[in-house]
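Entry type: protein chain
Record version: 2
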Amino acid sequence: MLPALVVAMMLGGGALLAAAAVTSIGGLDRAGDPEEPRVATAPTETAAPAPTRTPASASAPVSGIPIAELADPAWTQRIAAAGDIPERAMAAYAGAALAVAGTHPACGLGWNTLAAIGLVETLHGSMHGATLHADGTVLPAIVGIALDGDGTIPVPDTDGGAIDGDAVWDRAVGPMQFIPSTWALAAQDGDRDGVTDINQIDDAVLAAAVHLCEVGGDLTQPENWIAAVSAYNPSLDYNHRVAAAANSYATLE
């Protein structure tokens, strides 16, 4: 796999936010396809929200219901099968989108964007032999390369190696590839168990969803979607892959 690229950006009150992005998916290299557009793109449509399991109030996503239980399970199973997405991951993507629809109603984030990022980052939590378990944990942990300046922006250690196992340099971790310093600021408890776990897909996907909404604002606007996704990786190749996957997933509706 080619070295990951890293982008750092400022969020809110000067908080450093960065994430490592996989740049070798589906046999493509970092250069990408020369036929691809030379400008960043956004999906042409946003997937319709998943139907909910039961009628819920607007406050339900933050009232203690695990996000994986928000979407209708029959819908989740059908869309997951149609899109070749692990059903457990699909529940997280759909649930996180429903959750931020309640907490960030102006965001307009579709589950298809979250699924596209999960695909490009870690193949929905399956990269490097990892397994996405029924409880949402992804093990063994997916840990990226050392962000030591060799093909990356250097990111010295911020967690003493507690999260990424590296006491010298930070590394991206988990199904959505957060670095420890970002996780300390952006972590969410998607499975509502009282713990924020970078290797648990509900927690990681909800953190990504909140981050995208806070960075981009109204993600139905192409320029805002592009800016938000650029927080994961600024390369055109990455942008094109995520946009293409998001478009493909949106057609599953």
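Comment: The CA atoms of residues 93 and 111 lie 5 Å apart.
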